[in-house]
Write a structure and sequence with these properties.
four-stranded antiparallel beta sheet; alpha+beta; 12 helices; single chain; three-stranded mixed beta sheet
Length: 258
């Protein structure tokens, strides 16, 4: 009997801990002002993303934003010409009404750019041969569910993903398999208008790496193995890259069930 009681006393705290871990965090509205660290002036139209909840917003003309958040959530702030910043949400931020986050300006150095014009002869047959050929096979256009292929026919993205599943050592399986929780955020990211607007204006993959917890090289490897060309990977904006990864991931999940 004594052993049974001791066992029960040992199990009860563990059950309570497990119950607390399963509970969803309490979300509250958080209001903060974003200012210039040098001048203390409020910054308008700063993009703010709650990386933990996958929702976004922007600051108003007074530099204020309101977003749903829980304690220990991570906010990501991005503004053109300023260094992006991650901030951990604390209890004090909810209690203090005039909480401020300061962003620091970046110094840009313009590099010399050499533009090489194409010398046209006026003869169509000759000029066509001299123009550069885009060898991109597959294009992804944000807002459309299908991809487009051009040039010589190459294996489709589905074939590439199927190869990943048949080969356990393949890069795609490793990347997708190790990041299931982060990659499940893809649909949430695509559903939030503020996040989509921010990604449509960016080409540096910075926000994507923060949201998906992937390195830039991992993003390139995923797209390469899904048969997207170097031209697309190098020139697409972050929203198009998001749609491409999402499309590839959905195909991967369907094939992986089989």
């Amino acid at each position: 009997m004594r052993r049974i009681l001791l066992t029960l006393f040992a199990i009860i705290p563990l059950l309570g801990l497990a119950q607390n871990e399963d509970e969803s965090p309490v979300l509250e509205e958080l209001t903060v002002t974003v200012v210039n660290a040098q001048s203390d002036f409020p910054l308008e139209s700063v993009h703010v993303i709650n990386l933990s909840q996958v929702i976004g917003t922007i600051t108003d003309q007074n530099g204020k934003f309101t977003i749903e958040a829980a304690v220990n959530d991570t906010l990501y702030l991005s503004y053109l010409g300023f260094k992006s910043q991650k901030v951990r949400v604390t209890n004090d931020m909810f209690k203090i009404k005039d909480t401020k986050i300061a962003l620091t300006e970046l110094a840009y150095a313009l590099e010399e750019v050499i533009v090489t014009p194409y010398q046209l002869t006026g003869y169509l047959e000759i000029d066509v041969k001299n123009l550069p050929v885009n060898n991109a096979y597959q294009y992804s256009i944000s807002g459309l569910n299908t991809s487009y292929e051009a040039g010589n026919k190459s294996p489709s993205a589905v074939t590439k993903v199927l190869g990943a599943i048949l080969n356990p050592a393949d890069l795609l399986r490793n990347l997708f398999g190790k990041k299931p929780r982060q990659l499940r955020k893809l649909q949430q990211m695509k559903a939030d208008d503020e996040i989509r607007n921010l990604l449509a204006s960016k080409f540096d993959r910075e926000v994507l790496t923060e949201l998906l917890q992937l390195e830039k090289v991992d993003i390139e490897d995923i797209l390469n193995n899904c048969n997207y060309s170097k031209s697309f990977i190098n020139t697409a904006n972050d929203l198009q890259i998001l749609d491409a990864i999402s499309s590839c991931y959905e195909e991967y999940k369907v094939l992986n069930r089989k």
